[in-house]
Batch of 4 targets.
Target 1
Amino acid sequence: DVKVTQSSRYLVKRTGEKVFLECVQDMDHENMFWYRQDPGLGLRLIYFSYDVKMKEKGDIPEGYSVSREKKERFSLILESASTNQTSMYLCASSSPGQQAGANVLTFGAGSRLTVL
Amino acid sequence: SQQGEEDPQALSIQEGENATMNCSYKTSINNLQWYRQNSGRGLVHLILIRSNEREKHSGRLRVTLDTSKKSSSLLITASRAADTASYFCATEKMEYGNKLVFGAGTILRVKS
């Protein structure tokens, strides 16, 4: 089974701290994504990457950055955490070859971040 | 930007009944997918339907797609308590660079 592992299930940080959320997938997927999930808003795409060292902004990239130095690892960075970044963060991966080019996502279990 | 919108926002039924959730979207798509999320966990892919398909089945799941109305429905037959979860539709279109855009979800509660 494809596995997407997010390093932390729960984090509590203080305003202004730098926060790293790590995501690792073990199925050699080319594509990786970071979403945040808030009640009533569904999932919103923060950043995504189609290859090592490349990144693309999603719908809400402000206040975030990402790093993809290795194919299996995609990190989300909050340079200076703020209270409005309190949320559930979901990492996902996919491969275009999975279902005839369709982008079917495999998600990690999520990281619930609270910024005080 | 939200492409899909699910309806209803919440649904409560008895075990054994059927559950129907609807999804509407705004622009043309390549495919539409449904995902399930158990409380506090990640999403799990359920089923994909392409724009040239009208209906698909997978076990107790039936998905329909009406591209003229820009809408889809997910039917879960003979529901079980274990089906209690949130259900999301997600749309993919080439212009988005194969990104998936998710709706806000339907919360389904199946009472035993």
Target 2
Amino acid sequence: QKEVEQNSGPLSVPEGAIASLNCTYSDRGSQSFFWYRQYSGKSPELIMSIYSNGDKEDGRFTAQLNKASQYVSLLIRDSQPSDSATYLCAVKENNNDMRFGAGTRLTVKP
Amino acid sequence: DGGITQSPKYLFRKEGQNVTLSCEQNLNHDAMYWYRQDPGQGLRLIYYSQIVNDFQKGDIAEGYSVSREKKESFPLTVTSAQKNPTAFYLCASSSRDRALGELFFGEGSRLTVL
């Protein structure tokens, strides 16, 4: 069974700190990796995508990918209370299926 | 504006009834998906379709059916055979380009069985 694993949390960080969210995946043939943010009762929204090893930065968000270790992470700098949400890691597998982790719930405390 | 429209947002069903959830997109995407989300859990794939008149089962297809008669539309029927249908249902679409493939989601439909 192919899997995408995330720590369920909750992860709690103070306002202004760096939040670090981690994800591992089992399908070595996966080529595309995504982070979605989901507020309670709402649908997921895409915040980052990454396709090659290394770091990709977009504003306060940095995605990191290590295909050899089958590991992808999301760093949120200068965390704000509005960042409090569940973050879903998604992996597009070689057969074009998109597989999601269970999500990490993040709380940013003022 | 381009996007994905799901309806209804909230739906109540009696046990033994079939219900159909609507999903329409005007993004000109070839691929469409249905996911189910239960409280505190991630998204599980029910069905997906890469092209009109073709669709494949996902991980939890039992008790569900779909059709893809038009590129823009991918309705999901929750049948009476689905034992535990109360959940949040999400429709999504994506470009067929494997190098991209971001999913864009509708606002979701919340189904409650009474």
Target 3
Amino acid sequence: NAGVTQTPKFRVLKTGQSMTLLCAQDMNHEYMYWYRQDPGMGLRLIHYSVGEGTTAKGEVPDGYNVSRLKKQNFLLGLESAAPSQTSVYFCASSYRGVSTDTQYFGPGTRLTVL
Amino acid sequence: AQSVTQPDIHITVSEGASLELRCNYSYGATPYLFWYVQSPGQGLQLLLKYFSGDTLVQGIKGFEAEFKRSQSSFNLRKPSVHWSDAAEYFCAVASNFGNEKLTFGTGTRLTIIP
């Protein structure tokens, strides 16, 4: 039981490049989330999914897209990376929603955009 | 809109001393409240949560927190800290409207000295 895993752990991009971050969970959770963490700020929700095939915008969705084609995977895409997207990205999952269930977090992906 | 304030950016305590980390929230109704811990280079781990009922909540690793509605606070406490408690601690609040928005505070970094 690996819990929540994230790929890659580190990545350096140039401005304008694209990339996809992969989040996988083996807990059969319905809900999955993508957050970003910036210095001096708490985690902020980018996008989330309440089940396979669904996605919804969070607090800071601009510049990101997501897909949930399989229940166990939640992908976060950056189509044209910008330096403002330099951050640590965390994925989380839970069986039900945040108001009723515990979120389990992955170890994070550190992304630098030059 | 819900919000969380953690007034202490950094706290240093001696090993074996007691600890209290402050958290104040802003939310119109009864909130759902959480404390998470983040060790260096790791994802977040849930310490404890308050949904309803007893206002004193026990968590893992010997932590507890008390919900005080009159003060809009949810302070985290531990009677005797261990060196392994050195980490960053985040307070978070969620609404009970099912909008999946978990709002985090900016965090308190805890340093333990021998």
Target 4
Amino acid sequence: QSALTQPPSASGSPGQSVTISCTGTSSDVGGYNYVSWYQQHPGKAPKLMIYEVSKRPSGVPDRFSGSKSGNTASLIVSGLQAEDEADYYCSSYAGSNNVLFGGGTKLTVL
Amino acid sequence: EVQLMESGGGLVQPGGSLRLSCAASGFTFNSYAMSWVRLAPGKGLEWVSVISGIGDSTYYADSVRGRFTISRGNSKNTLYLRMNSLRAEDTAVYYCAKGSSRYWSDYHFDFWGQGTLVTVSS
């Protein structure tokens, strides 16, 4: 199974909104509501930002939201802040007790 | 506070073996499935393996099945990954990651460790 497809980079100015896409197939993203998003700052542990497509763990700002349409999931970051600059990874259940990740998107706050 | 601390990484020759450990604290260890996830240089994250809370079920990515073995010592609150027949493509930072249920049924990782680097090279 191939990794999920994310754009290598995304950017936005402070206060703006940015959307990061995550494209899979009907066997993973499109087939299950188990899409998650993780934020990773350089040298740090990944942090869960969104799970089950659109749920936010406690402590994650509501500026972060998730959605899904067909085989593509999206992470929306609104009101961009400097500390949002990081790598973002999507993941999806792919059946048969397997999880796939995306290649990662480097978000730059201009 | 949930804390996960990996150890055991290092430089190993192709074909060699290594055992990683992950010491956990701040939660009831045997109540949660635990996974290993790796990040290879220049690549994205890759899920490696998962074990249920009481260790009665394990699953592996195709890329490591038959070479890696996940286990846990619940009395020691520690997760392990035994890696045999290591290849250059196994070079990565290995993270342990906590699930949010006893059996891997929700497929996300709510806490991660800082990772340990494994380098496979001659």
